[in-house]
Fold each of these.
Amino acid sequence: MEIKKAVIPVAGLGTRFLPVTKSMPKEMLPIIDKPVIHYVVEEAIASGIDDIIFITGRSKRSIEDYFDDSPELEYHLKQKNQHNLLKIVQDISSMVDLHYIRQREPKGLGDAILTAQKHISDEPFAVLLGDDIIVNKTPCTKQLIDNFYKYGRSTIAVEEVPVEKIGSYGIIKGTPLDDSLYVLEDIVEKPRPEDAPSNIGAIGRYVFTPEILDCIKETVIGVGNEIQLTDGIRLLNSKQKIYAYRFTGKRYDTGDKTEYVKAIIDFALNNEDMKEYIEEYLEGMNLRT
Ligand code: UTP
């Protein structure tokens, strides 16, 4: 069965980015001139997704506005003959079929995904976290979808994480099949480094069989008083094989301030118009140290 639907949860509170996230979603933070969420939607589309369900919450209105038509702005740009900008603005609102479902309270990632159950029904689907940007020629979600087509089973993206960050991830135990693929044996949410089964953590990209939704439903409140996706994955793993895929690409967890700044620097260095100036600026910094 083809994977055409994706769930993008954006209902979290973004406490790591307070105070700006008091009134603005972290997914709308700009990487130069595009918000983080724009890159995530682009990845979904480039992976063959044509139906996106955003799980939103309070203070997330600007995400809907961003992907909506903006008649006044379009009229203004037309009047001023700014056709390049007009095209950029119009392209955004016609990117893909978008739906919005409200998560009543931010009760955890598992709960957020579960709110999409009616829309997903009995199809396999992708999940992309709205604050992870992953750069690669073959999009990370496409890599997972390809693995799903090969094995017909849920596949989660993983990468090695530094020891000091182990306590922020779902950490897996897996049996390696080759350099990039594991059969999942277990996954533990935010373990202490000394208790962690490995240093390989699940990041914000997943492809699931629809059975994950009933598994999440059966889970009880977990770590951090939240309905954890990790607990749903554990339960699904007791019923069906799950694969963990070490994806190819560079990931930025833009919900983390340092990673966010790194993303801006790297994107600026890859931007033809800015590259030279930013390089010069960074070189100047080296001279001063
Ligand atoms: P995070 O844990 O990174 O997001 O969740 P957060 O809770 O917003 O961030 P901090 O830790 O307080 O800074 C990963 C993703 O899951 C979504 C978030 O929006 C983010 O995209 N999420 C999380 C929800 O949609 N609902 C929730 O209840 C929790």
Amino acid sequence: MQKLALVKLGGSVITFKDKALTANTGAIDGISGALVQLDMPVIVVHGGGSFGHHWSVQYDMHTKPAPYDPHGVAVVHESMIALNQIIVNSMIKAGANPYAVAPCMFTTGHKAIAAKVRQLYEMAKANNVIPVTFGDVVHMGGRKYSILSGDALMSIIAKVLKPSRVIFATNVDGIYRDMKTRELVQELKSARRNGDPVEFSKTAGADVTGGMQRKVREAFKIASMGMDVVLVNGLYPERIVQAAHGEVQTGTVVVKKGRK
Ligand code: IPE
């Protein structure tokens, strides 16, 4: 395990999911201010929200590799670059050193190019550069493309780097045991995943990669590789800072396999 915070900024935090192509700049600036405080190597992954998902839905593009409309490929990718630029510029303004990295630079298909992933860590460790990558449409060979979600990227990166902190920031406080009472599950043991009465919030707006359920699935996957995974509300950026320091007051920890 290496000292590294791997942080996913969900589309529900960084965009207004029900307003096409609209970034939540207030939330992004808040998170940039939090990330710059972290005294450890950081890698950021962000989702698509009302940017990537908006066009993916319009062009009927999904995670399944298929010969999607190439114009759809162009506009989905462009929208993700546009959102990435907003985030990167916000981080620069906050005094951080972000470095935009499209996922095709360190993956092939949906698999890691391990040496390139390790290079991201090198950059983060050597001089406080924060690689900022994102869910995107990626080439799968021939005419086929696929949506590679930011959540899937979290597993891909975590598997290679084994970060000491894996954090998913969404627009909810964590996983609710009961949606009505908003009772939070503080710790979720991976072994009990099928038995645990967990409800999933219906995310507003369109989502081609599976919303909260997908996040939890990736969180379990990462926990089964031996890392605790924390889900926090990114609209309270200080919770990201706390989670990176190993303190979770309001949030859910998906406990790594093997920890009692
Ligand atoms: C989606 O990434 C990327 C595209 C649709 C191109 P995510 O699935 O990780 O996005 P959010 O966080 O759920 O919005």
Amino acid sequence: MKQVKTIFSGIKPSGDLTIGNYIGAISQWAEMQAYNNCIFSIVDYHAITVKQDPTILRRRILDITKIYLAAGIDPQKSIIFQQSTVPAHTELAWILNCLGTYMADLKKMTQFKDKAGDRQDAVSVGLFDYPVLMAADILLYDTQSVPVGEDQKQHVELARDIAKRFNNEYGPIFVIPEAVVRKEGARVMSLTDPSKKMAKSDDSANSYIALLDDIELAKKKIIKAVTDSGTDIDYDPAERPALANLLTIYAALGNRQIPRLVKDYAGKGYGEFKKDLAEVVAKFLGDFQDKFKQISDADAQAVLEQGREKAAEITQVKMEKIRAAIGVR
Ligand code: ATP
Ligand code: LTN
């Protein structure tokens, strides 16, 4: 029998969720909830590390809630909540900022270096401190596993380091979490530049397929996606990363194995492959969007309120122990 674990993960409402978010993160969450205690958050305080329009942010929080539900996350089995409605997250982030995290840790984070680029002095302190808030999210719930895409592994490692340092100083308060990364699809790449990951905040909308994209538009994006030189269909991420990425998307959304796809497309060219992939994506999006449309804003709000109550209860107990351990109570 599988051991029941506590699972925590989250997505920030910083753009329209893409098939990368779905394949790398959300699709494994729905599978995990059957036999684990799962907590899934819409991490809005992570989104404001870069500027957001308040009206759009509010809309996205509800849309992501609906996306979680449409992807099969069941609020009777899992806790679904909005990070900013549970104040313990920011409170613990502050404590961990002071006790357990060093400047050198954060300076090493590749996401920060990528996002800040050569403007490190001009980005918000929040963008720099972001991994500490993420560590707080994870550690508050005694989380054992954190299902994320490849890009977030480093942040989970940091949460582990922070937890160990804190425990060394104050006793066994935190459970040491572990990242869980899919074998295939942990890093879906941009459709316009296969050396970059597909990201919802990318400037070019052709680089990603959003879960709520118009279906005809999504098909066009697949047809236009860059391919490598060569004409046959073969899986070789090092030599032919663009094609390997399209095969990964095909396998994940079409429920097929990559070796099987390679066999089926032997002797066929990119044109036919892309046309079929466009249909697979269209079918997936069509089914997904049908489910999405059946969920009202009021349903989403009710789910968030129910989740907030459960999360608040768990975190209140945890925060009392943490405050007592460090001597502020
Ligand atoms: P942003 O562009 O705003 O940085 P993002 O699209 O990278 O956002 P996040 O909110 O940072 O998305 O990530 C949510 C989850 O989706 C994380 O677990 C992350 O690892 C996963 N994820 C994001 N992009 C991809 C991708 N291209 N392939 C696989 N997983 C991904
Ligand atoms: N930093 C993550 C989002 C995130 C998260 C978390 C993921 C915030 N808190 C806790 C897992 C667990 C990201 O950018 N994808």
Amino acid sequence: MDIETMSRTAEALVAPGKGILAADESHPTMAKRLAAIGLESSESVRQTYRGMLLGTPGLSEFISGVILFDETIRQRTPDGTPIPELLRRQGIIPGIKVDGGIKPLAGFPGEVATEGLDGLRARLADYASLGARFAKWRAVIRIDGALPSATCIETHAHALARYAALAQEAGLTPIVEPEVLMNGSHTAQRCAEVTVTVLRAVYEQLGHQHVVLEASLLKPNMVLPGVDCPHQVSDEEVGRLTIRTLRQAVPAAVPGLVFLSGGQSDEQATARLAAINRQGPQPWQCSFSFGRALQGPVLRAWAGEETNRGAAQAALLHRARLNSLARSGEYAPSMEAVS
Ligand code: 13P
């Protein structure tokens, strides 16, 4: 393993003004996204949509890397260019989701574990040969009454560290994603407590399993009240709480945080990322790795019609540019109107 190369990849992914486009939806998730615009999910629809997304001219000005799904990393554009090559030619780093999705955690009703460690070494080698330079694994933690359990947190922390160590062995920069969900009626304070507990457990395990933090990135949730919490908070408060929480638990050796959007609206995710970046200098770059918050407007503009290709790509560039501006805290909601 070449730690230097993996560290450089991590740094390039969080270069100032740039962030990651998460386009790694599994088949069931993609089916849901396409159903929302009245389309059935088939391999050719997914190929057309993602080919359009990833072929957006000028994308590399704001997007440093793209997380692909297994199907996509093996696909080609209509002119025969492999998707990882399409990205590389634009100066965008190809990445890959390597977890096998979430399944119920046996013995712990209401909680989940992430599958995919079996056979992971061979899959990582395959992805590296297909051109992937970084990887992602997602853990999902739900807040509900007494949940999450300590067992759920330990299980996820252990799996994230096993994955990250194997990714580094294969030469891929690991993105470690422990997502505390925003579903529920919990307060922002409770989200902060759970997030700090989860992150401490994750970094303890990463240490035990000899993961080199300089050659990794963290993909955290923002610290938010649950969507059904009666006490919602301002964007500035989200920024303050998120930074205060992450500073308790994320080592300074980690080069960057790439926040997930997690079901926030696209405008909310951008405004809160800007608020996070207005909290002053941090030990790490604070960037984005948005799925829904980048692709939502694109899917709506595209609607499955080839004639909407230009409008859909313009919607992606607009969102990517605003998130780029959020990296320096310069974003203001008034910029939303200008496309
Ligand atoms: P969202 O930004 O839609 O939460 O997706 C990011 C992601 O990659 C989740 O694993």
